[in-house]
Amino acid sequence: MNDSLSFQYNVASKQCGVHVGRFRSAVMPIQDPNLLIYWTYYKNCREDLGYTFYPDDNTCVKFHSVKKSWMEANLVCDTEYGHMYLVNSLDKFDLLKTVLNAEGIANGFFYLGGTDQFMEGQFSWLDGSTYTNFQGSPNNENGEEHCFGYRAYERGLYDITCTKPLKFLCEIPILPK
């Protein structure tokens, strides 16, 4: 897909760059704060793949009802030129509720694009940003909860097991016009 720009930033040197095309996939989150951080933005929403464009947030979102493990869900999103949905701002949290309401979803757990399975105890979104505002979590129940989930009826973020098949959301960030 050539209608994209990838953003690169080196935290240590504070230098950034932009590359035409998809620079890397977003299958694994950033693990070291000094590593280069890459993110890809696209010119167009992939409506042909079932994504819906939300112009106020410059993002396209797709709800997947076929249940997958967290890693399988992450690969599905990556295959569709996106990444799992990130709730890295209040606006993105509001958009999540809007998307689920549009889908008629009032119950259930859903995977989101965050985990601590690459660095135990340090939850981060796939873009490298951290998150700590869980509802009574993260509690890493039985030492097995390493992925972000959203519980629709409680409208809250939780740490949950990564292997349980769940529904999930993908997003494709769009370049501002």
TrEMBL record:
<feature type="domain" description="C-type lectin">
    <location>
        <begin position="56"/>
        <end position="171"/>
    </location>
</feature>
<dbReference type="InterPro" id="IPR018378">
    <property type="entry name" value="C-type_lectin_CS"/>
</dbReference>
<dbReference type="Pfam" id="PF00059">
    <property type="entry name" value="Lectin_C"/>
</dbReference>
<dbReference type="InterPro" id="IPR001304">
    <property type="entry name" value="C-type_lectin-like"/>
</dbReference>
<dbReference type="InterPro" id="IPR016186">
    <property type="entry name" value="C-type_lectin-like/link_sf"/>
</dbReference>
<dbReference type="InterPro" id="IPR016187">
    <property type="entry name" value="CTDL_fold"/>
</dbReference>
<protein>
    <recommendedName>
        <fullName>C-type lectin domain-containing protein</fullName>
    </recommendedName>
</protein>
<dbReference type="InterPro" id="IPR050111">
    <property type="entry name" value="C-type_lectin/snaclec_domain"/>
</dbReference>
<keyword id="KW-1015">Disulfide bond</keyword>
